[in-house]
């Protein structure tokens, strides 16, 4: 099995507008809340009861905005926050989002 290759924007390509747009969706906010523990998570752990196509759409939006890193391992799609890049470029934004994202935000 060939590993999947995911495109990630370079750090100097990240913009606050794209990051905020990616974080503007309740489903993606819930994903960020789950990723805030600093661990790498299988994409299937990031949202409950979503069709795979919807899950793929949301994880792609986060990755293409530069909010997450994604890598394939076997059949798993492993995702983690780009916390270092985001904190350096946009200090306090990620912390504020996480602090104001409680459990179950996706149902809001």
From TrEMBL:
GO terms for molecular function: DNA-binding transcription factor activity. It holds the Pfam family HTH_20. SUPFAM superfamilies: Winged helix' DNA-binding domain. Gene3D superfamilies: Winged helix-like DNA-binding domain superfamily/Winged helix DNA-binding domain (1.10.10.10). SMART domains: HTH_ARSR. Residues 8-101 form the HTH arsR-type domain. This is Transcriptional regulator. It comes from Peptidiphaga gingivicola.
């Amino acid at each position: 099995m060939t590993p999947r290759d995911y495109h990630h924007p370079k750090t100097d390509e990240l913009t606050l507008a794209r990051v905020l747009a990616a974080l503007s969706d309740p489903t993606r906010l819930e994903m960020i809340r789950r990723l805030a523990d600093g661990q790498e998570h299988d994409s299937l752990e990031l949202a409950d009861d979503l069709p795979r196509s919807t899950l793929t759409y949301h994880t792609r939006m986060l990755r293409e905005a530069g909010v997450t890193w994604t890598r394939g391992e076997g059949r798993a799609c492993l995702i983690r926050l780009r916390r270092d890049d985001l904190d350096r470029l946009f200090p306090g934004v990620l912390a504020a989002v996480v602090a104001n994202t409680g459990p179950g935000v996706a149902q809001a």
